Amino acid sequence: MTALSLTLLVALTAPGTPARNARPRSDTPAATAPAQDLSDAEVESRVRTYLGAIDTPISADRWRALGPRAVAPLEAVLRDPNALPSRRAKAVEALSVVGGARARQLVLETARAEQEPFGVRASALRGAPRVLPAKELARQLRPVMERAEDPTIRATAAEVLARHAAKSSCAAVRAQASREEGEARGQFANAIERCGGR
Predict the structure, then answer these.
(1) d(CA 163, CA 170)
(2) pLDDT for 132-141, tens place per residue?
(3) Are the C-beta atoms of residues 143 and 158 closer than 8 Å to each other?
(4) Residue 82: domain span
């Protein structure tokens, strides 16, 4: 009997054997405290961690759980000229998920900003439907679709409008596509298809 007990004890404590009541490691996202229990500095740290995640996608629920205090550190990343465009694109996408008046303003400013790299601006365009109702989306993004210098940005805006504000935007999408020339017109194909074709 003693030998059996000893064998069982060794098996339960052997390396790689999960303990029944083991807690998750404190550095894993699942083990972190609820956002309302975090200080502003801890919220900022979590924002940096989420933005740096490569292998683990950060869900919309996790971004929303950070609440309005996540907006300031996300804005800081978005406005940092030394930050990688991919990181800034993640920041503006996260802002569209967190929501609120300031986040909405930043998303729209970025969507309209000609100096922004394509990836950052496209991320703002794709996030805009999260912060605006369909009619307001059409009003805000139609000028981007019609006047952006980059034809790929114009096509991206058209696709967002066709997907999220078709009723109020498809006539304008078709009209803009007809004004495009050459390769730029071809970039409107997805938006036109979403609008039911020509």
Answers:
(1) 9
(2) 999 999 999 9
(3) no
(4) 37-131
